UniProtKB/TrEMBL annotation:
<dbReference type="InterPro" id="IPR022595">
    <property type="entry name" value="Enc34_ssDNA-bd"/>
</dbReference>
<dbReference type="Pfam" id="PF10991">
    <property type="entry name" value="Enc34_ssDNA-bd"/>
</dbReference>
<protein>
    <submittedName>
        <fullName>DUF2815 family protein</fullName>
    </submittedName>
</protein>
<dbReference type="InterPro" id="IPR012340">
    <property type="entry name" value="NA-bd_OB-fold"/>
</dbReference>
Length: 191
């Protein structure tokens, strides 16, 4: 019996990113509401421009999502330039060193992603997957047409952590902020 979760995503619109994809704004453990909307799990995926296989796969999946979404666009294939597209240029849109020489995609889902390690074993320690670590991520592209906004969105699938990376977000660790105190000199701090 096959116990894999069925999904309704087309294989033409699904992509698994390469091993050099970096997580940013990783909200993958608890759903959060953005701008008062529905609670969702979300992450920004930073993909190096040098990862040509992933970028090409994403571009093909976006084209497939446009084709599959013709019904949402009034039955006609729209000019791609008129749509809001999810693959964005970090050099142009972000003043952040982590996004330089990279593209990025914001992906979200109302269901929690499965999060696994390199050996496809579940990761339960929330400190293991964070903004800055590297992961392969399954994503799915789909068309939307809501209140005059038309385009292709990106759904978040599952996450496979590949390796650690420098944490993003500017949060210093306690070991960076403090040095150890010698207990024998407690009087030094009373002055």
């Amino acid at each position: 019996m096959n116990l894999r979760r069925k999904n309704n995503m087309s294989q033409n619109t699904k992509v698994v990113t390469g091993i050099n994809t970096r997580l940013s704004y990783a909200n993958v453990w608890e759903p959060k509401s953005i701008n008062g909307g529905k609670e969702k799990y979300s992450v920004s995926l930073i993909i190096p421009k040098s990862d040509k296989p992933t970028i090409t796969a994403i571009e093909k999946a976006i084209d497939a999502a446009i084709q599959e979404g013709i019904g949402k666009f009034g039955g006609k294939k729209p000019n791609k330039a008129t749509l809001k597209l999810p693959l964005r240029d970090g050099d142009v849109e972000r003043d952040d060193a982590a996004y330089q020489d990279s593209y990025f995609i914001n992906a979200n889902s109302i269901t929690a992603p499965q999060i696994v390690d390199k050996h496809v074993q579940p990761i339960l320690d929330r400190d293991e997957v964070y903004s800055g670590c590297y992961a392969r991520v399954s994503i799915n592209f789909y068309a939307f047409n809501t209140n005059g906004n038309r385009g292709i969105a990106c759904g978040l699938g599952n996450i496979q952590k590949i390796r650690d990376g420098e944490p993003l977000g500017g949060h210093a660790s306690a070991s960076d902020d403090f040095t150890a105190i010698d207990d024998s000199n407690d009087n030094d701090f009373l002055a």
